[in-house]
Backbone:
DNA sequence: CTAAGATTCAAACGAACGTTTAATTGACCA
DNA sequence: TGGTCAATTAAACGTTCGTTTGAATCTTAG
């Protein structure tokens, strides 16, 4: 009398109905409460499946979490790299501008955010949360999952900003990932800052459109130097250079 | 034969030795594993106190977490506002530059980072983690704790950037908080990006010195507009304006 | 010195957790 | 139609969690 209407037939093509329900529910609950605070009992109850189903289909709770991330992340990162390749090919032999590299980074995320069938805004929020989770298995999984994509984009930025030392570039990419994940993760966090129009929740799309110029300017910022203010900071810290 | 050497005398002045040991250990463990993943049993064992001591001295685990944050956060935010007041008074009647406002935001954090007796780098990392924690009581606590400080700085930035719409400013402050907390929280996160010199862990101080120019440039970024790239993004998303 | 209060202690509480088991159901092919 | 294997189910496993309890111990004031 429930959702047994789905006779998808073969069990060797794609995820089972049960697997899909678990993944969808896990995506929502992990996003809302985090990994530790989401119990398999509440998860399976919300999904309308048996408690043992998670362990049967995914092994452990940690493997379920990784499956939730992989399902969305792999296609998105592949899209990012394909788009970057296409843009680079079109611009050859010139190097890409930072603006276009950022575009290759953001557009697949925007596409995902606008597509409810692929998780929409919810998944991006989950991703942002995962980036800040201290659980070792999450950190390791993300670094493995992102390694090639990040390296590819870092190389592209390196060509676009040849004057920028490698180390400085690494840090600026780090700052970009920070602002991006924090922004994506922030369901209500922005209410801390913006007291006006507290119910006007911008979509992730508008949000990323505001974020891009901000990050672009940061990428092109001058190198830290011994300016007047820097000396004032040192003085305020009671130190000599 | 242990730490019983401290005869601080009165029990009405400052925290007990037991309370201090709990707070210090909690600061370290909450930073390393997060709130949920830190059990009171491991915490009290590491602190060398009885299991019941936390509930006796602080009430609940959540109240302990808030006490850990308050101990460092209150003085730091007070320092920030005092410094901002002093800088504004010195610049009057001119408005402060963004550079100096950022200085008032960063210098107290730098002072704290350089002072092991006040938590040093560890506490800043804990703070960054707390900002990304989905636990409702943490989010509410932080927003209450930061409300006045943020409002004060937002007003200062508003005077420094009179041309910037209020809403745009709110978002840029949001981005700043994101990059800041993500950066402070990242013990090993930067290894995702920087494959070179993986063991050369910059202190938070050097880190913030790299972050400040990046954020300053973002604050002064031009408003989002209908540039050529923007149209290309729309086209890539298959949409008309 | 002693009564009173603050603190520490070992022990136990009930609840919730992730995972496993063994039996049962369902679908498919020979 | 009967046999095979994947999927689901209810129940239980052992562990760990935050918190509470009541007695023991320490500190302090009268």
Residues:
């Amino acid at each position: 009398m429930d959702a047994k209407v789905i006779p998808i037939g073969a069990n060797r093509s794609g995820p089972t109905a049960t697997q899909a329900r678990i993944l969808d529910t896990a995506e929502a609950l992990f996003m809302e409460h985090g990994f530790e605070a989401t119990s398999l009992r509440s998860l399976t109850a919300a999904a309308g499946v048996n408690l043992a189903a998670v362990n049967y289909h995914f092994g452990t709770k940690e493997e379920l979490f990784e499956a939730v991330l992989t399902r969305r992340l792999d296609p998105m990162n592949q899209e990012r790299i394909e788009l970057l390749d296409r843009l680079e090919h079109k611009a050859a032999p010139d190097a890409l501008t930072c603006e276009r590299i950022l575009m290759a980074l953001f557009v697949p995320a925007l596409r995902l955010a606008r597509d409810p069938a692929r998780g929409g805004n919810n998944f991006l929020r989950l991703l942002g949360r995962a980036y800040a989770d201290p659980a070792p298995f999450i950190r390791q999984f993300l670094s493995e999952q992102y390694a090639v994509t990040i390296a590819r984009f870092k190389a592209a930025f390196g060509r676009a900003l040849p004057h920028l030392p490698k180390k400085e570039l690494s840090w600026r990419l780090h700052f970009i990932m920070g602002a991006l994940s924090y922004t994506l993760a922030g369901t209500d966090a922005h209410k801390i800052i913006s007291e006006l129009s507290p119910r006007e929740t911008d979509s992730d799309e508008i949000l990323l459109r505001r974020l891009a110029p901000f990050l672009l300017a940061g990428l092109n910022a001058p190198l830290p130097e011994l300016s007047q203010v820097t000396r004032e900071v040192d003085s305020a810290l009671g130190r000599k250079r």
Summary: DSSP finds ten helices and no strands in chain B.
